[in-house]
Fold this protein.
Amino acid sequence: MNKLTPDKWTPKKQTFIQGTMILLAAGVINRILGFIPRIALPRIIGAEGVGIYQLGYPFFLVLVTVITGGIPLAVAKLVSEAETENKPQNSAFVLRVSLLLTVGLGILFMALAIWLAPWVTNTILTDSRVYHTFISMSPMLVIVAVSSVYRGYFQGKQNMIPSAASSIIETIARIICTLWFAYLLLPKGVAYAAAGAMLGVMAGEFFGMLALLWQFRRERPNAVKPDKTSRSEAASRGLFSRLMGINVPVTAGKLVGSFSYLFESIVTAQSLAIAGIATSVATAQYGALQGMIIPVLLLPGALTSSLAVSLVPSLSEAAARNDRTTIHKRLNQTIRLALVTGAPFSVLMYVLAEPLCRFLYNDADIAGMLRMLAPFALFVYVQAPLQAALQALDRPGRALFNTLVSATVKLLLIWYLSSQPKYGIYGAVIAIIINSIVVAFLHGYSISRLLKYRFKLFEMVKLLCSMIITAAVTSLAYRHLPFAGLSLVQFFASAFIGAAGFLITVFALKLVTPRDVKRMPVIGRWFGNDEPKNPAA
């Protein structure tokens, strides 16, 4: 039987904390860079061009979800289990089958998208100018299919560097190409400029895929394909059925989210119209909520996404060993990290909502929505890790059920509240808040029953105390600092003082300990890193 043997290029597996921090760094960089095209693209192609550019995206997201929805998670889980059992031939089998499946679906849906583009853009989207943008994004389906498999493979190996590096390369290439191609095609008209922007997005995805392929080739130059015996053994273990068993419910769950987002935009617009709000005003309000407030609120989501990605192979490995102690430890680490790192952002967005909106968008009128959402942001931040835990523990169906229930509640609340003039767009805000609470509690309850896990309520009380103290410190600093004529300086100084106050408080309350800091990559070296050698730590 041929087996993949380690060679000099085989990377050292990162610890759970290291992998999370690597993905976090990449996520933060990508979130910051992501604001560049949000600001610059409308200046090049105008609001009308951005509208054309955005119109085809819902269809693209649905197709991508169908093709790759649960593949990265499934590949990461099965590869992690194969590595734990020291059967790399199974990893190779999973990689090969996943590539065949996703690339085949990608080619099929790309052909269908190109064939149906005239009908979709004229009938469903009712704007024929979207045609060129729709065609431009179709090849991305195959590129994203390949990238998703390799990302899942590296994550299963608990090597987060390729995923992080490729995402940064993809973001940088996307920014440059999107703005450049849009500018080059602008003389041909706004429709072509929007198509150029979409071609830029495809170029970014292509460079990200190349980075993953290069890393795979570099680290596994002597890799052999699984022979017939390996494939027979893998098949006998039911790897393909397990792959699909994870992929299908996760994909269904993501489709629920995609369709929920689509229906949410429709229901909100119609409810605001019932409330007597003019169409142009309703569109502007919803655009401010989804295009300006929500992206700011989700900025700390870079950490929770990193935690979710790192958690899947870590929990899968522990579950394969039937090591419930490690599973509980990982959950404690994940929840604590998500809450402690998200809490200061939640406080600062609440206290400094008005100067923050003025600084980012030159529009302080929308600050009320941010101030209303900010205190409940922590429920949003813990959703991804909790859902990832359910998926890693072979309960994707439960995660799907929880998502479906909360999405239904949100849509019903939007329809009921936003149609009343006294609520308007704030009805949608209330629905989003209740949705985030329902999802977090349902996921938490499911995990508690599955693992007999108990959440550390006393730590949450301590976190609440630290948030209250931080809010008071930040508010006092903003009101009394001698920078009244320099609002930007006043904002950053207040935010810095608030963040410093939060750090002091969490250390004083022992929510974070010096040992936690020492275990962090790079930063830990400054404090005498004593991180354990065990990669599972």
Notes: The chain has a mean pLDDT of 77. Residues 506 and 512 are 6 Å apart (CA to CA). Residues 16-55 form the longest helix (40 residues).
